[in-house]
Predict the structure of Ionotropic glutamate receptor C-terminal domain-containing protein.
Amino acid sequence: MNKVWLLVLVVFCHGIFSNGVTNISTRPDVVNVGAILSYKSIIGKVAKVAMEAAVEDVNSDSTVLAGTKIELTMQDSNYSRFMGIVEALKFMEKDTVAIIGPQQSVTAHVISHIANELQMAAIADIVNYYGWRDVIAIYVDDDHGRNGIAALATRDDITDLLVKVALMESRIVVLHTYAGPGPVVLNVAQYLGMMGTGYVWIATNWLSTILDTNSPLDSNAMDDFQGVITLRMYAPDSELKRKFVSRWSNLAGGKSANGSFGLIEGTEMFKGYCIDVFTAALNLLPYVVPCKLIPFGDGSNNPSSTELVHLITTGVYDAAIGDIAIITNRTRIVDFTQPYVESGLVVVAKVRRFSLSTLFFAHKENTISTLGRVVLIIWLFVVLIINSSYTASLTSILTVQQLSSSIKGIETLISSKDPIGYQQGSYARNYLVEELGIHESRLFPLNTPEDYAEALKDGPQGGGVAAVVDERAYVDLFLSTRCEFSIVGQEFTKAEWGFAFPRDSPLAIDMSTAILKLSENGDLQRIHDKWLMSSACTSQSTTFEVDRLQLKSFWGLFAICGFACLLALLVYLIMMVRQFSRHYSDDVESSGSSSGSKRIQTFLTFVDEKEVDVKNRSKRRQMEKASNRSVGEDESTNGSKKRYTESCSSKSLDKGEEA
């Protein structure tokens, strides 16, 4: 896979037109341009052909320099620095307005200074664009390399040098050398495994020159060049450029480099919340960081995060990722990234479900009927239960369960003598002992969620624990599937998780920036919800599945209420029929309206009347009947008295006559 790069040609302007006069009054017919090259070198071959073609193009078009011709004089230094200096001095003695070259750095000290600035400016733009903070420069120890490392003379020297580079933290390497040793450096880097994913190699124009002049290259050399960035001058498309490319292809024997490249930019995969956050942040970095994730611990017991952090300071690990809480003791020896999750200490205890709530309200309507009062009492009972259940379901489960747990929070644990569980390897143990003064004999290390559940179910009487103290993130995950436990009290510490790096590591800063980006774009929350959220139970606001209120939850209450209503309605109808028969049957018969529709209409009118009106009417009728009865009785009594008086009078007359 070949790379296309940019070629930088540096021209040193020694003079100006018209014999150094800045105010040009007349344009010369000819300007002298000198060139000092090593004809046998790669650059010399390329430059000689390119300059000859360029001068021919300029001189053939009078519009370029307004009729002025270029007189190009080239000298072969033949790799001799001394001869290069002599030829340069000769050009300066003549009316030479510009000197191209020389190639040797010692010969052209000033030119090399300008060349370095131009080349390195382009590389600096690349470095700044990708946000790379540390860059390793490899360059020859002469004026071309501007006083750098020891000369890259042999392959062993190159190997020793690159081994030192491999031990450095930065993976961004700028290679500024000659076309001779440059490929050797890349070959050694390939051998040492420094050309793989994570490394960035930037070569100056020596590599693009090789690619342009020595194509096709052998496969071994091309393998060494894979993934390397180099520079080539960009020339906008034009008619002159197309003519030059065509002429160059003929002069160079049809040799040309191929614009093709591919990406392989693969990685090992690990699963977990912290791993996902780390990977997502790593992908946001403006450069590739090669990393090999090594598990820490024995696989059965939870390892100590503090011990892991200490191993960073000894150079065993370059970084530590995981559930590492950012606490004071650890910040003294390593640098942490921006925290990616909050996780203070909380208390988890076993709780008993749903305490009873009562709700009272005043019924505003007066109920006179006994049956109505019975139905109302039953209905109020149903409403009471429904409202109480609804209120309880909306109330925080934590608040309700606190009332039913003997553990109210960390204060209860401090004042008691009950055993306390904690996650093995967590900083919770040191905090409970050193900060809260809890005796070590009360603390029991636990490893897995299953250990948590078993110890809490057994309780202090069964050899378990009264509560477990752990970080909030773990507790949320634990409670997501175990609804018989809950957080009691408040979170009593504020801690956060972060990734640990050696002190003054630039990765800590860059990873912090990446974590902030994850937080801003919502990816951090999505990763959190993926691993730490569940649909079953949560620590505070979840209703238990078995206790979730539904319509069928109250079917018994509704059945009782319905039966009472139907029974009351039946009794009421019977009473209405009896009352109607007692009070209205005579009226209906006396009125002569014995049709069924009339009787039904009269009955409905009767039912619609209030009970008080019915009773009042009943009393009036009873009084009327009683009055009529008393009048009849008076008349009957008066008649009897009259007959009796008459009888007595007749008897008296009879007795008188006899006498």
Q: What stands out?
A: The radius of gyration is 52 Å. The mean pLDDT is 75. Residues 156 and 446 are 54 Å apart (CA to CA). The domain at 30-104 is CATH 3.40.50.2300 (Rossmann fold).
